[in-house]
Design brief:
The strands form two sheets. The protein has a five-stranded parallel β-sheet with strand order 4-3-5-6-7, with helices on both faces. It has 141 residues and is an alpha/beta fold. The chain has one domain: 3-Layer(aba) Sandwich (Rossmann fold), CATH 3.40.50. Strand 5, helix 3 and strand 6 form a beta-alpha-beta unit. The N terminus is likely disordered.
Length: 141
């Protein structure tokens, strides 16, 4: 069973309850259309929290302790690479799996993402099944 808590910041945070709790994913994406796509693709299978910039993403990750963070690279307030570094630096959240999903397809961006602690990287536009496959692989499902 899952319930949802409303944070004072206007973000809805799912909470796990019961023995069959679903995996938690925090999406950090500034494009509302892409967030809608994530909702359509993932909300039925995972407890999904969506945020719109790096600052709110870091807050949501601290509050929900997700299994996976799906992070865009180019965002307002905090770049995705900085967010990744901050996640890896905090003891309570450093084990969170990080999947970058970005329109940046340069080999240097992908290399940098992995060097700073990302678990995987997928380039937009992506096929929905490719995204689901990477998520299943990262979550061991």
């Amino acid at each position: 069973m899952t319930s949802v808590l409303d944070g004072h910041d206007g973000i809805r945070y799912p909470t796990r309850m019961g023995p069959e709790a679903r995996k938690r994913i925090v999406v950090v994406e500034d494009d509302p259309l892409i967030r809608s796509l994530y909702d359509a693709l993932l909300a039925k299978q995972y407890d999904l929290t969506q945020t719109f910039d790096g600052d709110s993403g870091l807050d949501a990750i601290r509050k929900t302790l997700p299994d996976l963070a799906i992070v865009d690279v180019s965002m307002p307030k905090m770049h995705g690479f900085e967010l990744c570094q901050r996640i890896r630096a905090e003891e309570a959240i450093k084990a969170t799996k990080i999947l970058f999903v970005s329109g940046k397809s340069y080999a240097t961006d992908i290399k940098t993402a992995k060097e700073i602690g990302a678990n995987d990287y997928i380039v937009k536009p992506f096929q929905p099944e490719d995204l689901r496959g990477k998520i299943r692989s990262l979550l061991g499902a």
